[in-house]
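Person: I keep going back and forth on a fold encoding question. Show me how you would write down a chain together with its backbone fold. Please set it down just below, with no commentary around it:
Helper:
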Amino acid sequence: MRGISMKHPGSADVLTEVDVPRPIPKAGELLLKVHTAAVNRTDIMRRENTALQAPYPILGVEVAGEVIENASDRSEFSTGTRVYGLVNLGGYAEYAVIPADRAILLPDSLDYVSAAGIAEVFLTAYQTLYWLGKLQKNETVLIHAGASGVGTAAIQLAKQYSQARVIVTAGSAEKLAFCQELGADEIINYKTQDFAEEVKKMTEGNGVDVILDFVGASYWEKNLSSIAVDGRWVLIGTLGGTTVESLDLRFLLQKRIQLIGTLLTPRSDEYKAKLTQEFMKNIDPYFETGAIRPIIDRTFPLSEAKEAHEYMEANKNVGKIILTVSES
């Protein structure tokens, strides 16, 4: 089968198409014919990871496809059943295996392209907002990178599921307008506005209850200024650097801030399964009615995985980037 791996760690140029055997599902797994796979930041981080050594993996942690073989005891996943979800690598390929307890039934209202844009960003957004950020109804949340995949998911969850007040940052008028369409109450252009000052005005000096931070070091001081007493600050990315030059811990103590760092991909299978099951129970009805929807920026054929990675690295996307593997 065709798959996308890497010649060695490095830039998008190292991606290469390979011919490898079809995977064999173990007990508790499903073998899928992959129709679509999503491109995620974690794929780029793995591609650049100089600690990796050959043989290099097939990339991709998120797929949508149809069941070819069921090696689990889950009778709902008969041959031909349409599913989507997170895999333990191998998503950029014609076939992939997925643990049955992480496979999500694909409703008739969604196609394979849309489905591939759900699991990673919505599970991450759900985890950060509710398991870690403890967002409560009618609280205020500040979502950085609002037009990113996780950002667009978080906006919708916070508004539809929690009726929260949503403040977002993004770097262009186009991206901010789209965030408003999804339900953002307040928008801030971080390139032309000081978001800490704007948050202070918007919250009458009280700050926000929850921060979803993709940026890290370069936003440290402004996030400290923006968060409320007893606020929950969830760090899920370091696009703005990893080192804070000067750190005064008194501010964390004075505001009783909970600062939590997380990544979803390295979590255990058990953690991901539990998260998936809770997410399905609480949020699936919103997908079925269209109240919450995956945001797809554009698609690339599998053979253009390099171009898809470059597109993401250029921060051109609003929402998800999808690789099409086989005809839907």
About this structure: Residues 269-289 form the longest helix (21 residues). The mean pLDDT is 95. DSSP finds ten helices and 15 strands in the chain. The two ends are 18 Å apart (CA to CA).
